[in-house]
Design a protein that fits this description.
Chain lengths: 342, 360
Amino acid sequence: MSTPTLTARPSRAAALDGLGRYVPIGATVALLALMYLGGLGNYRNFDNPQLIPDLFIGNAGLLIIGVGMTFVILSGGIDLSVGSVMAFSTMACAWLTVDAGVSAPLAVGLVLALGVVSGTLTGIVIHYFDVQPFIATLVGLFLYRGLTLQISAEDVSMRDVAFFDWGMTRVEFGGSPREGGFSLPYLSFLALAVVAIAFVVLHYTRFGRGVYAVGGNEQSALLMGLPVARTKVGVYAISGFCAALAGVVSAFYTKSADPLRGVGLELDAIAAVVIGGTLLTGGAGFVLGTVAGVMVMGLLSTIIAFQGNLNSWWAKIVVGVLLLAFILLQRVLARSGEKRRT
Amino acid sequence: MNTVLTRVRAAAGDGWASPYLKRLIWPLAVLVLLIVVNVAITGFDFLVPGVQDGRLNGAFVNILRRSAPLLVIALGMTLVIATKGIDLSVGAVYAIGAAIACQWISGPNENALGTVLIAVAAALAVAAVIGAWNGTMVAAFGIQPIVATLILMIAGRGIAQLITGGQIPDVNDTSPFVELGRGAILTIPVPIVIAAAVLAAFAVLTRRTALGLLLESVGGNPEASRLAGIRAKGITILVYLVCGLCAGLAGIIGAANLGSADANNGGLWIELDAILAVVIGGTALIGGRFFLLGTTIGVVIIGTLEVTIINVGLSSQWQFTAKAIVVLAVALLQSPEFRAFTLQPFRRRTPAAAVQEAAK
């Protein structure tokens, strides 16, 4: 960087640099508002107060997985195993409680612990053996899907386990839906708690700053003396935990385990993270952006359902177009950033 | 074994053959092991093909026939990976190619050769356009390959469903189209012929012209290649275009074999299998050197593995687990850090290394 450019326009460049970070997430929130207003204008009953809370019920699993994926992507990695780990966790819950007779809270604890251990092992393979994240998590994708199918190739019901009723117990806000209030089940609070904890960890702890630093430039992070190994293994452990938790939430939500649940869910999670404004190369983004990304995807299917004459495949195409738009937007921002600095 | 090796080496010229053969020896050993296991269980019928209804038949020929679409895709993927890229959209392009071909053909004219030719050409053209789009995103806009191709990986199956209108179009057994999947030329099944032709064409184009060298150069260091006067952008776009074309062709073969196109499940996870085959074949994901023959062996290993699991009496659910073990083993074997870690206790310590360790 030469001195003349430094003295030429320092204030404007600095201001833009600071605000540039918020452009992608701003675009996501604007898109979300636009979709909601468009829905209000076009469809009757779209103003139902239960509509927004419903997004947090049906998509609670995706939201939790998206939060874990945000950590991994911020650190510059990717985790393809989340869909399989989620399916395996649900199946393991069913197997432990229904067939093995383990008490339900213990089963849930075991499943969550397994998620952390499996994520940690993946992280160790990625960091210490320098295996690419794509390949290392591909192992998880195959392994856990295979194990799930080996436990049972058919649906297993958990209807007889009373513990799993607990998650869908609803809390009402402002009366019943007819009186303008809405209700949320406990599992949605679980998802929101995960988001809140992730927000605090990412923005107000050393570990969180480390995640951004490693994603921005691993070499620099190492030279600065940051604990790169702990951070990299940590993000995969978090993602494994989140995937297992999503599996538990899925057990609460459906009270059954389907061996083919969550096929391709890793793609939805990655899409939600990118639409939420996180850079896929790592180092920039917000966990609240992922929340917005999940809501965009949820609202999209809601609108398609309201429209009635559109088929479900339009959702895939629109998500693809949104991905393209956000990736190009980030690319343009990155290029203009490079130009300003040189 | 040794005499064969020396003979191959002498035939190909020692300097060229030795590094390539060295890379192929491990995948080849795994394949031979799998075949030996199968022969031990089911007898020599596994390997020796018979002739039935004017075409070859037998367990191993069937493996090759069923692996043909995967091989075509994996060969395209090899070239993409050689340029330091990756193409996640091949499964979706497979579905699109199959959807276009079947949708076009199914109708009153489905027995006419002209309809079939136009349908196949249309499917290939669209696949090539999609590939070129991927390549443009990577080369011209500078977007990471994994991100650029992710877009079509997600949207592609939606597009395929849009083409078929959510139905599964099917083609009658009387149409010449199904010959592409079930027919035979000189008793050899057509899919094997097509895949072999693609392999031969790629081998000639990359090993007998400068194209292969240019590819390895772009994969090794795109910026240095550009400075050396290589049109890195053009080559990158071309490679993705070819990969898209391969995926479309694979979709056509697959659809012809089934006589229908399933937009949701056709070619599901084939991108992962293709990447797996390329990696087993010794091509590293970091770009540079590539091994077409290694990829071919990798594809046959995956195909044989699936049959072996059934033959040794395990349920087909073991497939995923077995694949996971193979991926992990290959990834770890290729990691220098892992080899250093496991070989550490067996290595003679040189004085220099001892000093280094003491310094730590």
